[in-house]
Amino acid sequence: MIGTEAMTEVFIDSVDCYGMAVTWGPYKQYTYASPKNYFSEGGFGGWEGWVFYGKCMEIPMFQYVYNPVMPLKLAGHGNLSGGTGPNADETSAHNIGQCFYWLVAKSYLSGFVIRIDYDLVPVDILSSMDKKADTYMLDWNRPMEDPEKPLNVPEVLPEGTTDWHYWIPKPGRHPYRHFPFPERHKEFNKHQRTYGDPQKEQFLRMMAYMRSHLIPEFLVYGEMMRPGKIVSEENKKIDYDYEYYWSFGDTNHPIFQKPIAYEDVYAAQLEHQGNWSTKPIITSAWHEANPDNLQIIGHVQLPNALYIVANTSNVARNLKYSFECDLYPKDTLLRVFVLRLRPGSSHQSSWSDWQMLDEPLRSIDGIVSWEREGKLFSHEIMLIKLEPMGKKEK
Questions:
Q1: 363-379 pLDDT, tens per residue?
Q2: How many beta carbons lie within 10 A of that of residue 7, not counting itself?
Q3: Where are the beta strands (DSSP E) in 133-217?
Q4: Helix axes of 99-109 and 198-209: crossing angle, nearest 10 degrees
Q5: C-beta of residue 117 within 8 angstroms of C-beta of residue 78
Q6: Which of 7, 27, 31, 74 could disulfide-link 35, Cβ–Cβ 3.0 to 4.6 Å?
Q7: CA distance 246 to 81
Q8: Positive or negative, the Cα torsion across 114, 270, 178, 43?
Q9: How confident is the model at residue 179 (pLDDT cuts 50, 70, 90)?
Q10: In whole angstroms, what is the distance from residue 287 CA to residue 289 CA?
Q11: Cα dihedral: 305, 311, 316, 319 (round 10)
Q12: pTM score of the predicted model
């Protein structure tokens, strides 16, 4: 597999995947120590500030235009932090926040996958791991002896330098990246322990299973089309808490310029967390594109279609959802299948339990209309699949 980081049209048929460092919503790389300045109007983040404050929105234009020939997109950075330690009162040093669910749903419904990335941040201690394990970082640099330049990091760094100047690039596991002094090793392991949240992990596993096993003919090999609409008032903007501490790992951050007290480290982190406002219900729609899977009805090849609705908030929401599909000729009859996905082991056995509705839909003058009102539970995904079955006899 050949991959790259940036992506433009000229590379579409040359690479298999690309890993964008920038992702949805407030989780933006390169904010460094000043995300508020980065997102502010006139800041060096540019249009990212418009997105952050709701003046414009991001859309998956490449996927909409080029899927399924589009290389797989690895959507930015993510992790599973926010769990608890060996004792119930021992919380994670960092918590990516409830916005994680919005980030994951937005990515997978757009045909992307989330990249769990621990570059520049402490690795999550997951629920299946020993909760007493040491925390560490993964990076491309670590202190090593160099015959021509022996490693000798001074206690007080010269003005204008960082620990980086004393490192030799080599990939690997680096327990205490920015804290090379012995007395700071213990402090890092004590204060920077991040525990994975099993609920976030289960939600991510569910979304990955949905993409790879339930509906790959749509999210992997299909084409995007106009999504349905939430016509109720339940999709008003809400606040999500978030913490973006990848920026915390940059060597230009002032906390890495010299040994300082940990209370100062925590104060610096405050700029990287807060609330972000957006709509909690996400929608998308796809149709099959593989000609081998298309059904021939009346000498016309017709694809299956899929509509997806995701509730990314932590409360159930009543909503009215509708769509109009223009894929099918007049009087085409369609079976309707509905699948509801919820994270949690008690629901995992039902992840492939499609329910066929009693009454088929019919295309009237080339338009198939559907509207339903109901409840979507916390972090629940609803899939509505249309399968053409023939034409209504006159």
A1: 999 999 999 999 999 99
A2: 18
A3: 137-142, 168-174
A4: 10
A5: yes
A6: 31
A7: 12
A8: positive
A9: very low
A10: 6
A11: -50
A12: 0.83
